[in-house]
């Protein structure tokens, strides 16, 4: 879980940093308004493409994690079922055995007068 949170934090920082850097560069650049708008358009398309790529990567990682977790969970469930079946057999065998009668109680000692 921590790796996923670290990745999301990194991605958010990358996106924000990219936007701030692009905006600062455009405002500082000595270009005409038309050139600046074209540059903004190109950068926004580039950032969108990067975001889509990162989003797809995150989705693939999540799907792999889900598959791995599902497989492990299925193994645990199968193991639990087999152990439950074994325990049921042991209990069944124990309850099928004839019970042995308890030893007769020793007579109570009589107090001496």
Task: Give the SSE map.
Layout: H1 2-28, H2 33-96
Detail the poorly predicted runs.
Answer: none
pLDDT averaged residue by residue: 82
Oligomer description? single chain
Kindly estimate the percentage of residues that lie in beta strands according to DSSP: under 5%
Overall number of strands: 0
Structural class: mainly alpha
Distance between the termini: 80 Å
What about the largest sheet? none
What integer value in Å does the Rg equal?
36 Å
Principal-axes geometry comes out as: rod-shaped
Secondary-structure element series: HH
Continuous helix count: 2
How much helicity do the residues have? over 70%
Tell me the domain tally: 1
Overview of this protein structure:
This protein has 113 residues and is an all-alpha fold. The chain has one domain. It is built from 2 helices and no strands. It has helices at 2-28, 33-96. The termini are far apart. The model has no long low-confidence stretch (mean pLDDT 82).
Summarize the structure.
The chain is mostly helical and 113 residues long. 81% of the residues lie in helices and 0% in strands.
Which terms would index this structure?
113 residues; mainly alpha; 0% strand
